[in-house]
Write a structure and sequence with these properties.
It is a single chain. The protein has 413 residues and is an alpha+beta fold. It folds into 2 domains: 327 residues, Outer membrane efflux proteins (OEP) (Up-down Bundle), CATH 1.20.1600; 65 residues. A 4-stranded antiparallel beta sheet has the order 1-2-3-4, with no helix packed on it. Strand 3 and strand 4 form a beta hairpin. Helix 1 packs parallel to helix 9, helix 4 packs antiparallel against helix 7 and helix 7 packs antiparallel against helix 8. It is elongated, with a radius of gyration of 38 Å. It starts with a helix and ends in a 5-residue tail after the last helix.
């Protein structure tokens, strides 16, 4: 179709020279809206949100000075043996005790709860980035399927026209019937490709709907690549990467957990208060108030195992952080290479498309003059179709490469 070729020509110009800012902003807003819609439907997001609520509750719990629930003890005692005057001794006791965190223990728990809340938030950002990458891939896969369908429809129209011309030439006796049969086979093959393209587009649309929760996808538009994204990443540039931030938060949580276990190697002391009332017979009652402190002697043997587990977790988090940083740098390098390859591929596809158009014009002229047969004319048309399809896919490949370099740098829509 002529309109399809014009669309891809405009898109190619936008990819090379960067589309207007208004179009880019509209596409970014549409993709951001799709991300919000996908976020509402993502079960992982709901699970991480629940974990974030759990972390907030843990922060509130860490503010309490109570290490465990307070205990209330009630007692009453009556002497079985009366005194000489027949009076019996009665005692009533009320005791209240509660384990209290030491200042260092409470500070360590608060520190751990704060890092766990930060880790939950970092996981949410990392999941949003992962979901954005899936949306970007799905959107450009959908655009590739749409371009393939449009080019196939255009090819069907051209081969159908050639079949009609061949039928007229056979009736006029200017062409053998075998040439018509060849044209009919080409039409049938083009229709088969058309059905396959329609099926592929339907699958891509369903995948987009399932992922984003939107019935209609936004218009695919290239994301301009800043010059800094083409350079090697610096430490300061990677500091804000969501995946690296999540790995650092995981290391901070592991470190805080180890410090907390070290602070909890001794059980917290227990503060108690006891109020006692004594009365013998009908005599005057006496009251007494006693305060007590229970201090555990020695460290808890089970805490050594907990410290060893926390130390192992810290070592694992440190290794994971190093691997994540290396992976991000590798992803950026791969994305930069793919962008260069996509740009080179687009230039080659443009040259191929130009040559195929010139070849079709020459073959069509030679066919009308009787210098070439229908088979060569059909082959020229097939080559042009393949060249146009390759050009359309080259545009898509460049747009996808630009999207993936944003993804590698951790840039959300």
């Amino acid at each position: 179709m002529a309109c399809a070729r014009q669309f891809w020509a405009v898109l190619a110009f936008g990819l090379l020279c960067q589309a207007p800012a208004t179009a880019q902003e509209a596409a970014r807003i549409a993709l951001r809206a799709a991300l919000e819609s996908a976020w509402r439907h993502a079960p992982q997001a709901q699970l991480l949100q629940a974990r974030q609520d759990e972390a907030v509750f843990a922060q509130n719990l860490a503010q309490s000075q109570l290490a465990d629930a307070a205990r209330l003890e009630l007692g009453h005692n009556r002497s079985l043996n009366p005194s000489a005057d027949g009076a019996r001794l009665r005692e009533t006791e009320i005791a209240l005790s509660a384990p209290l965190w030491l200042p260092a223990q409470q500070q360590a728990r608060q520190h751990l709860a704060g890092h766990e809340a930060g880790y939950a938030q970092a996981q949410l950002h990392a999941l949003r980035l992962q979901l954005a990458g899936e949306l970007r891939d799905s959107l450009w896969a959908l655009a590739a399927a749409q371009a393939a369908l449009e080019e196939t429809q255009d090819h069907v129209q051209h081969v159908e026209q050639l079949r009609q011309q061949a039928a007229q030439s056979v009736q006029a006796g200017a062409l053998a019937r075998a040439e018509l049969l060849l044209a009919q086979q080409e039409v049938l093959r083009a229709h088969t490709d058309l059905h396959a393209a329609q099926t592929a587009l339907s699958e891509k649309r369903k995948h987009w709907q399932l992922l984003s929760g939107q019935s209609a996808p936004p218009e695919s538009s290239p994301e301009p690549v800043p010059p800094a994204y083409l350079q090697a990443p610096s430490d300061s540039a990677l500091a804000q990467h969501p995946l690296l931030a999540a790995a650092r938060q995981a290391q901070a949580v592991a470190s805080a957990a180890l410090k907390t276990q070290h602070a909890l190697r001794y059980a917290p002391p227990t503060l108690g208060m006891r109020l006692k009332r004594e009365q013998e017979g009908r005599g005057a009652a006496s009251h007494s108030l006693a305060l007590s402190v229970q201090i555990p002697l020695g460290a808890n043997p089970q805490n050594q195992l907990a410290q060893a587990a926390a130390n192992s977790r810290l070592q694992g988090a440190h290794i994971a952080l190093t691997q994540q940083e290396m992976q991000i740098k590798a992803d950026i390098s791969v994305a930069q290479t793919r962008l260069q390859q996509a740009q080179a591929g687009l230039q080659a596809a443009q040259q191929r498309s130009t040559l195929s158009r010139e070849y079709v014009v020459l073959m069509e002229k030679a066919f009308r003059l009787g210098e070439r047969g229908l088979a060569e004319r059909l082959r020229a048309q097939t080559l042009q179709h393949e060249a146009q399809a390759a050009l359309a896919q080259a545009h898509i490949a460049l747009g996808l490469a630009q999207a993936r370099i944003h993804q590698a740098w951790g840039n959300l829509p």
